[in-house]
Design brief:
The chain has helices spanning about 15-25, 80-85; strands at about 10, 30-35, 35-40, 45-50, 70-75, 95-100, 100-110, 115-120. By secondary structure, the protein is of the alpha/beta class.
């Protein structure tokens, strides 16, 4: 019956601009749009829906407050992906580090939402 997540929505003051950020910086493509709603699809098939927001974005909350805190972007070549994002002037929240054989680094998207690159030594089961 339940198949899993079909997409995750992000509210943005400029949905078209944020959708294009995912295209330009992370290799997503806009696979569907209507009115001011944009679905962007990653090479692995995962999708985000970028929807219009109301009001102004709150300051980025601390990483461990309740609620969704980040989206993880899987990469097959961590160092190349990290270098590419640095060249694109993406804002990083720290330096890359290793955790249990995994390589990761946190950064912000065009609206300030927290993402992180991850390369896993072994895929999750």
């Amino acid at each position: 019956m339940f198949q899993g997540l079909e997409h995750t929505a992000i509210a943005s003051p400029d949905p078209k601009k944020l959708a294009q950020w995912y295209v330009d910086n992370l290799g997503f493509h806009i696979n569907f749009s209507y009115d001011v709603f944009f679905f962007v699809k990653a090479p692995n098939g995962s999708m985000l829906e970028i929807i219009p927001s109301d009001g102004v974005m709150a300051q980025t909350p601390p990483m461990k407050e309740p609620g969704i805190r980040h989206l993880a972007i899987a990469v097959d070549d961590f160092d190349a992906a990290h270098e590419q994002l640095k060249k694109q002037n993406v804002e990083f929240l720290g330096e890359p580090y290793n955790n249990q054989g995994n390589r990761l680094v946190f950064f912000k998207d065009g609206d300030g939402n927290i993402l992180h690159l991850i390369h896993r030594e072994k895929p999750l089961p």
